[in-house]
Amino acid sequence: MSYPFDLIELAHLVKQWGRELGFQQVGICDTDLSAHEGALQTWLDQQYHGDMDWMSRHGMLRARPQELLPGTLRVISVRMNYLPAKAAFASTLKNPRLGYVSRYALGRDYHKVLRQRLKQLGNKIQDWCQDVNFRPFVDSAPIMERQLAAKAGIGWVGKHSLILNREAGSWFFLGELLINLPLPVDVAQPEQCGRCVACITTCPTGAIVAPYTVDARRCISYLTIELAGEIPEALRPLIGNRIYGCDDCQLICPWNRFAQLTDENDFSPRAELHAPQLITLFSWSEEQFLRATEGSAIRRIGHFRWLRNIAVALGNAPYEDDIVLSLQTRLGESLLLDIHIEWALAQQQNHRQALAVNVQSAQQQRLVRSIEKGLLRDA
């Protein structure tokens, strides 16, 4: 089929428009993901998707983007950096009295930001060549966005299953624009993880069960965001103070030495969510929660799941009378919440007993040293 415009020129324009709209990279690929269908089916068969029923319900549709928009010939894949300045990773994670929110969720909901820009990109293409169909996606439909991003040259799939880029690490969002034009495609980057397994060994819950394979049922991001019910008791102590998502596999990745900071104001951290006191967050009413998370990705988990996550973090914190009192004040509000509060109170009691033993041991050691000094003087 011939077109009244130059497809190569249009591809260059698409990338230029994408950068003008705030995307740091734009790549183009075809729709053939058949090479990934076997791995996807195996992952589903292993039940690694947990309670995310839509994963199994959509099945192989995830590997067939052309079925999402009939007539699709190409996928325009984009990335947008989200890492804020002063991310305060270590200072928050190392302080068990603070709540850690995955850095991607500190600002405005990325779905809204990227989808709006992708729609603008589609409109620019439509204005230039008139008769064209497009549809934007941002983690909102059954589509293998990471495999498409890799195919479009955005980066390669790391062993933690995230996309890595040698100039930008992995602190970026992905989005896709399906389009019915046969634009020239980009070349995929070679995989460059080598022998590194840092992400696998650092995962707090052992969720990366093999290179490139994540068992969502053990992943802290799944447990604190996607899971609607009880967090498995054996995994609660491993969650630490992570109350929404987890960044550990990215933090340890050597390629993130090259991560680029975002220049999007929408992704700037909200003060209420940036290194917040756990007790303060646990005291929020539903109205306060909704107000603080307005326009945020966090809001979708709802108030009680938010409190559930914080209760677990409070249980993992060192013993404090104020923590026990804070936990007790919310008993009776929800059966799901009560289960986690009672666990947290039991944990606090264990911490208190351990603290008492440590204090007693320290007193005994001081007494022994005092006696030894006295004996030496007598000698």
Secondary-structure map:
Layout: H1 7-20, E1 25-29, H2 37-45, H3 53-58, E2 74-81, H4 89-93, E3 100-101, H5 110-129, E4 134-137, H6 145-151, E5 156-157, E6 163-164, E7 172-179, H7 198-202, E8 208-210, E9 213-214, H8 220-226, H9 236-239, E10 242-244, H10 248-251, H11 278-282, H12 286-292, H13 302-316, H14 321-329, H15 335-378
Parallel strand pairs: 3-10
Antiparallel strand pairs: 1-2, 2-7, 4-7, 5-6, 8-9
Helix pairs in contact: 1-5, 13-15, 14-15
Structure description:
The structure is a single chain. By secondary structure, the chain is an alpha+beta fold. The chain has a domain at 7-83 and 103-222 and 243-268. The protein contains 15 helices and 10 strands. The strands form 4 sheets. It has a 4-stranded antiparallel sheet with strand order 1-2-7-4, sandwiched between helices. A two-stranded parallel ribbon has the order 3-10. The protein has a two-stranded antiparallel sheet with strand order 5-6. A hairpin with a 2-residue loop joins strand 8 (208-210) and strand 9. The longest helix is centred in the last third of the chain and has 44 residues, at 335-378. It is elongated and about 90 Å long.
